[in-house]
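Worked example 3 (structure in, sequence out).
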């Protein structure tokens, strides 16, 4: 008896330590300089929780069985995850986040599907189906499945092999399915049964409906809205994992799930604010391209040569660089940092304007530039840098489009109308680096390109920046 108390105490203490490491790790992830250490601490917490569970967890006085299979699965999963993460390119990082997030949702859903048939007959006899244990299983199943299915669709959309499916009635279809799922949970919990096996087939029906909802609520989402749905799905996975923590009375699992769920929810709300969307519209899947922008087609563009751009930048006092997905595609973050260092050597103050939803996932540009060792204090959020743009001599847009589009302020019929943007046109001069005149992720015209202050510098971002660096060096 004393040994059982001792092992139980060790397990609980280990879970507390793991929870503290999770919290410290999340806190450190808020700053690039400490993010790597924070990730490492959180990983140590997870390793401790896994080892302690295998060694000390007991159910009805019996230790965990099938340890060989558990260790084999951990080793195989670790090797696969390590190989994928090491080989992924920065442009594919959003897809990787979606894929890994989906795996977390799938794991949570599988836990619920495995646990439902084993709900204690004593518990059912005492309180019926309307109890917290059953509720945690059903919520975990619904949210975990939606997270898995939605993340897989998001992965396909980000990777380019799944397109948008925009139907006007889709929001009503999604709301109907969501209402059905919630009603289905209530239906199961109000059944009076003598054996849980009577309701087990309903779990598979609920799983299938949740898959349909996960697919349909992500399918209409496209354009610049994708970072928001990634953040939302991440919060779903956290909530589903927290339900598993309730099921097993596992503090580490519960803490981790709550941290991921709450952090993802807060980030989703911030993303919605940055996109001028409501959270309800995210849930029913009706954002992105809901209308057509009636922009004035045509206009006159003005180009600038590499040498003229080098002169303009070199003799400026303030330069602001606006990075976008095109910078990530070209893998040009290192050469971009080299350019800003060259300009600073000439006495030019260089800052980076970071829009919250630039790229394909929250923080994409921050991660991209941190990889190139750009100092964090040079990365300025859009709402902080906008007031200083009228005093900026040159604003350089590299691969960004929708986040600098004046239609968000000028055109009420535009799908991005009302979205806070980087007010690029307020700068004294604007240089836009693009391959051509193609439209952005939201598929609407960008009238900034036709602004009298704007000069277009066409070409691949990496090649153009390399030529610009050479020109600046030779001046």
């Amino acid at each position: 008896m004393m040994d059982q108390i001792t092992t139980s105490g060790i397990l609980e203490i280990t879970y507390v330590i793991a929870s503290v490491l999770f919290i410290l790790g999340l806190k450190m992830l808020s700053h690039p300089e400490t993010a790597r250490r924070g990730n490492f601490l959180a990983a140590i917490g997870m390793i401790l929780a896994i080892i302690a569970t295998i060694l000390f967890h007991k159910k009805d006085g019996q230790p965990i069985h099938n340890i060989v299979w558990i260790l084999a699965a951990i080793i195989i999963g670790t090797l696969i995850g390590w190989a994928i993460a090491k080989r992924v390119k920065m442009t594919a990082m959003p897809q990787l986040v979606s894929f890994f997030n989906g795996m977390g949702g799938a794991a949570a859903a599988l836990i619920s599907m495995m646990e439902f048939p084993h709900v204690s007959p004593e518990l059912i006899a005492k309180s019926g189906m309307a109890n917290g244990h059953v509720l945690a299983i059903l919520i975990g199943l619904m949210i975990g499945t939606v997270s898995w299915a939605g993340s897989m669709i998001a992965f396909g959309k980000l990777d380019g092999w799944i397109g948008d499916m925009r139907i006007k009635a889709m929001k009503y279809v999604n709301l109907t399915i969501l209402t059905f799922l919630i009603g289905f949970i209530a239906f199961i919990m109000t059944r009076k049964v003598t054996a849980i096996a009577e309701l087990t087939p309903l779990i598979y029906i609920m799983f299938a409906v949740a898959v349909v909802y996960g697919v349909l609520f992500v399918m209409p989402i496209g354009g610049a809205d994708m970072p928001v749905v990634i953040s939302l799905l991440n919060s779903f996975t956290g909530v589903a994992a927290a339900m598993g923590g309730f099921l097993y009375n596992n503090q580490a699992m519960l803490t981790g799930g709550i941290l991921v769920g709450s952090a993802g929810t807060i980030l989703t709300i911030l993303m919605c604010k940055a996109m001028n969307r409501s959270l309800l519209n995210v849930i029913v899947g009706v954002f992105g391209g809901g209308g057509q922008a009636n922009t004035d087609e045509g206009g006159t563009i003005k180009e600038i040569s590499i040498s003229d751009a080098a002169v303009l930048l070199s003799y400026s006092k303030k330069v602001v660089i606006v990075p976008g997905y095109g910078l990530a595609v070209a893998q040009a973050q290192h050469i971009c940092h080299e350019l800003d260092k060259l300009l600073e050597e000439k006495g030019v103050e260089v800052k980076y304007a970071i829009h919250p939803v630039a790229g394909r996932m929250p923080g994409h540009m921050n991660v991209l530039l941190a990889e190139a060792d750009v100092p964090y204090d040079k990365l300025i959020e859009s709402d902080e840098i906008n007031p200083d743009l009228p005093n900026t001599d040159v604003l350089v847009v590299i691969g960004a489009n929708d986040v600098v589009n004046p239609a968000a302020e000028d055109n009420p019929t535009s799908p991005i109308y009302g979205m806070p943007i980087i007010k690029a046109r307020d700068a004294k001069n604007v240089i836009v680096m693009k391959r051509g005149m193609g439209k952005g992720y939201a598929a609407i015209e960008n009238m900034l390109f036709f602004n009298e202050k704007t000069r277009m510098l066409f070409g691949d971002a990496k090649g153009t920046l390399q030529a610009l660096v050479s020109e600046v060096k030779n001046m």
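Notes: Confidence is low (pLDDT under 50) at residues 286-296. The first strand starts at residue 58 and ends at 59.
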